[in-house]
Amino acid sequence: MNTQAFNPVSFLESKEEIAQYLNEAYEDDNPEVFVIALGNVIKARGVSDIARKSGLNRESLYKIFSGKAKPQWGTIHTLMHTLGFHINTHTT
Predict the structure, then answer these.
(1) What does the pLDDT look like over 46-90, one tens digit per residue?
(2) Rounded CA gap, 12 and 41, in Å?
(3) Is 6 helix (H, G, I), strand (E, B) or coil?
């Protein structure tokens, strides 16, 4: 039996799906989960296109989302702004 690795990028089509995906990743106790999720969204939207729109270096983005570098908050903020998403926190 041949199996393929799960690729969440293929499921990130609508803005609503992406927003829910990012919000759920943000809620995880491990901050790396959010960075991985953001990387998946960037890949789904096109790394080169996001790099151009954000003014960030494409190679740096690849390093961040491959786990070879840790992003600074300013980079995450810029990427979220470029994508048009905001973290939605809920209080209980």
Answers:
(1) 999 999 999 999 999 999 888 888 899 999 999 999 999 887 666
(2) 7
(3) coil
The answer to the question of residue 6 being in a domain is no
pTM beyond 0.90, yes or no: no
Residue 78 and residue 31: Cα distance in Å, rounded?
17
Is residue 91 in some structural domain?
no
Per-residue b/e over 35-50, b at no fewer than 16 CB within 10 Å? bbbbbbbbbbbebeeb
Cα(71)–Cα(69) distance, rounded to whole angstroms?
Answer: 6
Nearest Cα to 58, choosing from 39, 73, 74, 77? 39
Which tokens hold the place of 33?
């989960």
Q: How many domains does the chain have?
A: 1
Q: What is the mean pLDDT of residues 21-50?
A: 92
**Full domain range(s) for residue 59:** 14-83
Q: Which phi and psi (to 5°) does residue 40 adopt?
A: -65, -40
